[in-house]
Design brief:
The protein has twelve helices and no strands. By secondary structure, the chain is mainly α.
Length: 311
């Protein structure tokens, strides 16, 4: 009798594993199909190329300073202030303090990109962890976490940022942390909803019956299914963070001179835009191109990760 019972249990386990493997999504196959769909989107691929150029330009700030312009980002030449592009050895001109615009564009891009990426990653980690715990555990854990998120959502984030920045001048790392603490509830609600939807799928139930622990369920089955929407969210929020940092710096509340950012370059150039319009145009164009390219990449990711887009 015991041998027959063991055989039946073994057969049942094999059937569960078979159904589990059939129902569970193939992560490697999905990634390959998503990449093929993404490559068919020419606008998204072109935007990816533009973004790669901007990132390489920003990461090469020291090389540009040493081998291309010969100027440091805080090096002043007051006698050569407001030089036009190509004048006095300044490739893209100089600002009101005689600092090289090309060098400051590269360093400013590094600050803006690092700030936005850091803020998005920290927000994504906090919000995703809270959202998955809330959606998987449910019950009182879900209630406590989501009510905490509701409290933060009721606080006007931009007002808090302006208040903090007016009291003291935070660096861009501190500013990114403040962003993350205030803005994680948005992604946490999205991740919670997706986690609840995945949690009720048949292959999750099969994994539970098969003895999978909660850690394995979350790490191996829920997280890979929630990851696409997290990537799409990040691609949409990074441009918003870049623009917000630029706005705060433009108001004098963000990254402080002499460290350049595209926002404070706009602030410094606003008083003489009639005579040196390129000093306003160049950082503004970098903000525009970066935000636009990341948004277009996000749209391409959204379509690529949607199985309904398969032809």
């Amino acid at each position: 009798m015991s041998e027959a019972t063991s055989a039946n249990q073994a057969t049942e386990r094999l059937q569960l594993e078979s159904s589990w493997s059939t129902l569970a999504p193939s992560r490697g196959g999905n990634a390959a199909r998503a990449w093929r769909r993404f490559k068919r989107n020419r606008v998204a691929v072109a935007a990816l190329g533009v973004l790669i150029v901007i990132v390489i330009f920003s990461l090469s700030a020291e090389l540009i300073s040493t081998f291309v312009t010969g100027f440091d980002y805080e090096e002043n030449h007051l006698d050569l202030a407001r030089s036009h592009p190509g004048e006095n050895g300044f490739i893209l001109g100089s600002d009101a303090n005689g600092r090289d615009v090309l060098t400051r564009l590269a360093y400013g891009g590094r600050v803006s990109l690092v700030f936005a990426t850091m803020a998005a990653l920290i927000t994504l980690v906090i919000g995703s962890v809270v959202g998955m715990i809330s959606g998987f555990a449910l019950g009182w854990t879900d209630s406590i976490l989501m009510r905490s998120a509701d409290v933060l959502l009721s606080i006007p984030a931009i007002s808090i940022l302006v208040l903090v920045s007016s009291i003291y001048r935070p660096g861009y790392f501190t500013l990114a942390l403040i962003f993350s603490v205030l803005l994680w509830p948005g992604i946490s609600r999205i991740v919670r909803g997706e986690t609840i939807a995945v949690r009720n799928q048949p292959y999750i139930e099969a994994a539970k019956v098969n003895g999978a622990s909660n850690k394995r369920l979350v790490g191996r089955h829920i997280l890979p299914n929630v990851l696409p929407i997290m990537l799409i969210w990040a691609s949409q929020v990074i441009p918003a963070f870049i623009i917000t940092e630029a706005a705060l710096s433009f108001l004098g509340l963000g990254v402080q001179p002499p460290r350049p950012s595209w926002g404070n370059m706009l602030l410094e150039a606003q008083n003489y835009y009639m005579t040196n319009w390129t000093n306003v145009f160049l950082p503004g164009m970098m903000i525009f191109l970066t935000a636009l390219s990341i948004n277009l990449i996000g749209n391409g990711l959204r379509d690529a990760l949607d199985p309904r887009m398969e032809r």
